[in-house]
Amino acid sequence: MTPIITAFESSPDRGRGLARDMRVRWALEEVDQPYDVRLLSFKEMKEPPHLALQPFGQIPTYEEGDLALFDSGAIVLRLAQRHAGLLPDDADARARAVTWMFAAVSTMEPPIVERETARLVERREAWYAPRMALLETRVGTRLGQLSAHLGDADWLDGGFSAGDLLMVSVLLRLKGSDLLDEYPNLTAYMARGEARPAYQRAFAAQLAVFEATQAG
Amino acid sequence: MTPIITAFESSPDRGRGLARDMRVRWALEEVDQPYDVRLLSFKEMKEPPHLALQPFGQIPTYEEGDLALFDSGAIVLRLAQRHAGLLPDDADARARAVTWMFAAVSTMEPPIVERETARLVERREAWYAPRMALLETRVGTRLGQLSAHLGDADWLDGGFSAGDLLMVSVLLRLKGSDLLDEYPNLTAYMARGEARPAYQRAFAAQLAVFEATQAG
Description:
The structure is a homodimer. The first copy, chain A, has 2 domains: 4-85 and 198-215, Glutaredoxin (3-Layer(aba) Sandwich), CATH 3.40.30; 91-196, Up-down Bundle (Glutathione S-transferase Yfyf (Class Pi), Chain A, domain 2), CATH 1.20.1050. The first copy, chain A, is 58% helix and 8% strand. Chain A has helices at residues 21-30, 42-45, 48-53, 72-82, 91-121, 128-150, 162-171, 184-195, 197-215; strands at 4-8, 36-40, 61-64, 67-70. In chain A, strands 2-1-3-4 form a 4-stranded mixed sheet. In chain A, strand 1, helix 1 and strand 2 form a beta-alpha-beta unit. Chain A is globular and about 45 Å long. The two termini of chain A are 30 Å apart.
């Protein structure tokens, strides 16, 4: 049975691959599993049928027969546990990869999202400049720590894993920002992620959705 | 081999059980596993021996023989996968419990932590009152969605799971805040978590650390 994921009908990132369905698409491509996509309008995301699948009214969700999941991290983990390609075989190494999955979404991503939110919501407030300075310091601290850990390794812990998939996805939110200028090893790490054929296929698929809505 | 976790030598929450070692202590008590604790000063947390275990300089960590993990969510998941008591037996139900684990730390916790951070860091800024209003609206939205999902159920999805352990832990950060006043089902949910004997044992253990430092 082909699983179904949900994604934005009209992605606010305009096809730059930053919506969280991209993480699930990338994981599905890494493990070579076909999938279908159901597109949702912003209105539909807040209505009961979708809230029954995703109580916070977000995308993506994942439906496979009777199983319905949400949260991109949990969906990627499910795929990684069921199919080869996203977690090492060794049990200890698997646990370390899962550590990086959680670190990506609960340690690295929140200050990055907070900065994005401030850029959207607080841009016209009198406090914007000093607030942004605080937020950029906070993001910079995390980037420095991650850069120190990565060093000159290709991936966070041995070979490419679901931990890298989520960490690269989180860092890509900063693409084009000068916050990354000090950390060439992180920009190289992101580029290694983006260069993976599975990433490329997933990126093309989400971009095609955006382009179709523009054409329509 | 008894695992070793790390915790604050002097917890900033003064023994209220809000530091993230509490989540791991609670999980260890739920699965009835003994553990040792290594206490760290703030200075030690930022030094190379600890950074080798936890690149972001935080607690808790988890060491078990040659395996070293960090991130409380990942540690709780490791314990839940290795011992009975924190995940259902059914594979689909396990995946849903893991969804709630990720939702707790990546959807519910970030706005709650952001509010706490603002209370510490931005309290004296001119923008504090309007910023706090924004943040409380954001937290309130998430609480309303969670409350609507929980309804009159005891736990988020069937019986108590690691998803509830993390979600209750996250919500307890708001204990005493009037943000919870509108959601009696959430305060009852938190109380059910706190009433569990495993929670009580974990809470007593972390409080004993705080009281010992005060006595010393």
